[in-house]
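Project standup — Tuesday

K.O.: blocked on the structure for the chain from last sprint. Re-posting the sequence here as requested.
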Amino acid sequence: MDAKDSKVLLFKLTANPILAEEVAQKLHLQLSLSEVDHFADGEVLARPLCSVRDQTVYVIQSTANPVSERLMELLVFIDGLKNANAKEINLVIPYYGFCRQDRITREGEPITAKLVAKILEAAGVNLVITMDLHSPQIQGFFSCPVDALSPTDLFAQYYQDKLAKLGIATQDVCVVSPDHGSLHRARNLASKLPNSTLAVIDKRRPAPNKAEVVNVVGEVKDKVCIIIDDIIDTAGTVLACADCLFARGAKKIFVGGTHGIFSQGAADRLLKSKIEDIVITDSIEQNIKGINAISLAPMIAGVIEATEEGRPIPDSWMDFH
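H.V.: unblocked you, prediction finished:
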């Protein structure tokens, strides 16, 4: 993208400053200036510091912890862009907060993932680009276009390189889904690791952020197991799955998760466990020694570039370089 002739403006707020800088570099753009202030009573002010009139604007902001504050920053900023006559307001939300509240499981529960989608649309959003939604139906909560990207190719390349470095053949690998909801992620990753096998954990949740493993469907004995999931929060699921796999004879365990939240000391517990490798993406910016991170910048930049040039989004992340 030619910065000199571009009518695209790229903004960061507070959630993803490093990722936003990397995306800007990939697009050969300068990040446009913005201001985010918090008043003494907790109110937020977020506004662009340059003219956005008749411009196509992209805003990069994960709605991660503190989730409500980050969402409010985004909404206030969108309103400012709209009032300043931006031509088009597009959001890059690498991690879509409230995504686990996507259905009613008990009487009286809200569908907050849908509520947030409707609020963003009402604020004036034209397009949403996001990464690895917790469940596919969230995409349908929006009426505006949503590019829901998958990081499978990124993880596949990471594990291909790691396995080669360790001298581990892919036929000795079993990709494990920690529950039925992530089975499609595990299946897609296994398909990119030739001759690897697939297993799924039968898991129950007696309460929020608590997981109990009931059974393992698939053979994991003497296998190098890769547990792949979209979100690592308290790590209760991952640790319970790892204990179960080791008990059934797994040789090594690696863990991959798109969104590393790591609440309640989760990172420390993972690093002290027998899990040998942990990798996340930078959808939520973390800097934790011992946990590897894959950059989403090439993929996000590639999608923005393809969108602005009217090209289809490439099928493989390799085409984003």
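K.O.: great, moving the ticket to review. The chain has a mean pLDDT of 92. DSSP finds eight helices and 14 strands in the chain.
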